[in-house]
Amino acid sequence: MHVSELWRYPVKSMLGERVDAVDVVADGIAGDRAWATRDEVRGGIRGAKKIGALMRLAAAYDDGPGSSVTITLPDGTTVRAGAEGTDAAVSAALDHEVTLWPRLPATELDHYRRGAPDSDDLLEELRAIFGREPDEPLPDLSVFPPEILEYESPLGTYHDAFPLLLLTTSALRSLDEALEGSVVDVRRFRPSIVVDTGDDVGHPEFDWVGRNLRVGATELRIVTGCPRCVMVTREVDDSIPADRAVLRHIVADLGQNVGVYAEVVSAGPVRVGDAVHLGGPSPMDG
Length: 286
Fold this sequence. Notes:
alpha+beta, M1 Pyruvate Kinase, Domain 3, eight-stranded mixed beta sheet, 6 helices, 17 strands
């Protein structure tokens, strides 16, 4: 196995940039989700679970992490994160008032606290977030860090739950075969690392849960499958339309998961082409 693709997302829920190399640090890929949008209508940091049009915007660094972030709006206009007029331009593109914020320290609890829900009915709210039909199960929320029940993300980050998401070429190929008539594009699934699993079929990464993975110069611990939400159904551009069939298949046939979440055991650089080696059970799992 080897690294097939690397993705970095300078702004949470916007399209990211495919790169040849990244530095993996303690909390994921350096420069990943360095910015996010704050909902100025209902409060709280929001992603495309709530503001779906975010996935029609794209973000990229001008010169790698630490440099300016250029945001491309759906009409091709570009603005820079943090620059004067950018909040207004992004709000207009989303048809929703937002402001852009860089990551703040973990001590800024109010910044990370969840905004007001769209429904007072918790089950209705969760079904909307996860895109579930009334007869479909909700994910097992116990797999997530407990703090995200109160906060939008693990404090000090803009990650949904864990710092890295791994996907395999086998999974993408299997999705494409199962979803005739749907557009299966890697951008729907927002991986950090795509692993080329050769001729493997199905979703071999599900068997990695609880084990360590050596990726280039880094070591990762595979924590859990990634329960998919409404984001995989969102329109990305004219070539990737909104499509709820994608999520119906994932819920009905894949135990609600596509890809796996990972934590960083040891940091280091990773490049496209680096070998990927599956190890034994993590010491944390005995």
